[in-house]
Write a structure and sequence with these properties.
The chain has 7 helices and 11 strands. By secondary structure, the protein is α/β, with parallel strands linked by helices. A hairpin with a 3-residue loop joins strand 8 and strand 9 (176-182). The chain is globular, with a radius of gyration of 18 Å.
């Protein structure tokens, strides 16, 4: 790919999804600020085909949306990133006994919200069956847990002076380490996905695209379907709220 075509692809990847005219009124969006679940529930009563909760919704109870998992897409920071599918295939095929997640949160941002976004990502990648918080302050977070297949989880978070938040996942075994790094979704930096074994170090190809584009694609797919299927977003959000509740 030439430098010019690469720049063009990056520009396209940053643009919002364009819906055909007949679809626009059937997909609604609600802000992810405080109270978003109530607003989404109210919007669903107008009977749209699907709803996108935008702007990285804050931690909140989703009791008002029970049973509506087939209609709601949550536009989180990383969970809809295109690299998630490739990373999930590698990580779930692995038998490595330990999975580590480290989150960097910028000064001035809500560290706990960045941790929550990373847990939504981790849930997509390997699943989060249990989480025990060991240390939690405004500047750091430490927890241990377990995946559904019995692998140990280690979750840490700290402040960073770099731009934007990031999430770094490592699956560590005796003969290989799988690493995937996700960077601030407001930058045009693609994720890094690599496999390090005793024989070789392989960097997998990735492409940058905003996670929001995939969220809106899923909402369009729901609207076009005659029988929408259950989405992972609300279920995962609800599960991580149980693991990391509001105080």
């Amino acid at each position: 790919m030439t430098k010019l075509s690469s720049q063009a692809a990056a520009a396209v990847a940053s643009l919002p999804i364009t819906y055909e005219a007949g679809l626009r009124a059937r997909v609604l969006s609600v802000s992810g600020e405080v109270g978003w679940a109530g607003r989404a529930a109210a919007a669903l009563r107008t009977q749209p085909e699907s709803i996108v909760v935008v702007e990285r919704p804050v931690r909140s109870s989703t009791d008002e949306l029970v049973g509506r998992e087939d209609r709601v897409v949550i536009d989180s920071a990383w969970a809809h990133n295109p690299t998630v599918a490739d990373a999930t295939a590698l990580l779930r095929a692995s038998t490595d006994p330990l999975v580590e997640l480290h989150v960097d949160a910028p000064e001035g941002d809500d560290l706990h919200q960045w941790v929550f976004e990373a847990l939504l990502l981790l849930d997509r990648l390997v699943g989060v069956a249990a989480l025990e918080i060991l240390d939690e302050t405004v500047d750091r977070f430490v927890a241990t847990g377990m995946t559904p297949d019995g692998r140990a989880l280690s979750v840490t978070a700290a402040r960073t002076d770099s731009f934007g938040g990031s999430a770094h996942i490592r699956s560590i075994g005796t003969s290989q380490t799988i690493t995937v790094d996700f960077f601030d979704p407001d930058t045009a930096r693609p994720p890094l996905l690599s496999v390090d074994t005793t024989d070789q170090f392989v960097v997998m190809p990735t492409a940058w695209e905003t996670a929001s584009r995939e969220a809106w694609r899923q909402a369009a797919s729901i609207a076009r379907s005659s029988a929408p299927v259950r989405q992972l977003d609300l279920s995962s959000f609800r599960n991580q709220m149980q693991h990391f509740p509001l105080h």
